[in-house]
Amino acid sequence: MGSDLFGSFAESTCAALVISAVSSLGVDHDFAGISFPLMISSAGIIVCILTTFVATDIYPAKNASQVENTLKMQMIISTILMTPAALAVAMSTLPPEFTLQVPSATPGQAYDTKTVKNWYLFITVATGLWGGLLIGLQTEYFTSNRYQPVQDVADSCRTGSATNVIFGLALGYKSCIIPTIAIACAIYTGNSLAGMYGIATAALGMLGTLATGLAIDAYGPISDNAGGIAEMAGMGEDIRERTDALDAAGNTTAAIGKGFAIGSAALVSLALFGAYITRVKIDLQQTSILDPKVFAGLLVGAMLPYWFSAMTMKSVGKAALAMVEEVRRQFNTISGLMEGTARPDYKACVAISTNASLSEMIPPGALVMLTPVIVGTLFGVQALAGVLAGALVSGVQLAVSMANTGGAWDNAKKYIEAGNTEHARDLGGKGSDAHKAAVTGDTVGDPLKDTSGPSLNILIKLMAVESLVFAPFFANLAGGQGLFFHFFGL
């Protein structure tokens, strides 16, 4: 739970610490300045602890309809409080200015020396911080059934499953716009002010309210499992209605958590990409997309998230098929099961899920782990740079659209079931044709939002980390050209 957020947090911290250690802060042994990334994270923990009292004492939710607002207020208040905290940390730990090395745009010159002022880093952190909030708020808008997009998806169920799927996919694609712009602004601001250090600190800023983000993220599965317990225990319909309302809010909060994870993963991966470029000692001209090796790698890298997603989605489908067949077998062979007088074989169903979760992850894992090694060894450091950039660019878009499409389909189904508005009641409620179409969308959306979407964060980060680790080997192998191009003299 939350491993993708924690992974981004750890990697952005490490990237920022490494870059600061080789800057003038490290040369001058300025321990306080080097510790700036850690101090930002520490300030964020304190801010999030204080923000917790908003939900527990200051503005507690009195009914299910207030849950989303309370959680959203926590996110907004923690961001507001974190802004002056980041300024205080930047002014107190960093010297008025320091220098670091950035890749040079001048031909034949590897690096330029860049002077960075302490308030520059406050700007980079604040850009990431508010960019993360913007991503969270727009995610809520596209996945909460209180807003028009999800209600439009629910309304499309009037004409069947096909239109529901069409509207859901369109919603996911449209939801990529604001996160992409927010990430682009954070990257441009961070790189302009402090190079790759600025991008790493922007990622830390986006994760500055990580404690609140994790609390909001964890709320989803907790409320979902509460609903499952209520149903299995045969509790009253009123209990199930409350847990469904909480679960609908949980779907939105889970999507918000995925939005933060995707945004921070993009920033972290770019920082790691910059470290890779530095370690293999190639200049900006050699990574131009006009270079055929880089462009070819770019296309292959952009394809990888789709290949990876195809593997993970098919794995979910195969496991679901095995589960359905096992349930049918039990209904046919265990007498009294249909009448509720016999006990099902739960262990067999659990075994199918656990075995599939392990065995079916081997091919996608091999794809992620082997791609950098094969490309770097055979085709060289420039082609691998293109692969990393392509996977980052397409993976971010795909992950955002998958997470939001799945969340919207789930909440469209909840919207029809709850029947809290005149529009929802017109759709017919539970058991209607519109509800059956919504269930189809929800079923399609589960592997998108729970499997393929979140795992794309790992794809783009792990490939960047692995490339960085093997960078010296790739750079020294056949002069960095790769065995294929070296053998054929290309």
Automatic annotation (TrEMBL):
Superkingdom of origin: Eukaryota
Chief localization: membrane
Annotated transmembrane regions: 6-27, 34-55, 75-94, 119-137, 165-188, 195-216, 260-278, 290-308, 367-393, 468-488
InterPro entries found in the cross-reference section: PPase-energised_H-pump
Intracellular or extracellular location(s): Endomembrane system
Presence of keyword Transmembrane helix: yes
Pfam families: H_PPase
Presence of keyword Hydrolase: no
Entry's EC annotation: 7.1.3.1
Membrane disposition: Multi-pass membrane protein
Protein name per the record: H(+)-exporting diphosphatase
Sorted UniProt keywords: Ion transport, Magnesium, Membrane, Translocase, Transmembrane, Transmembrane helix, Transport
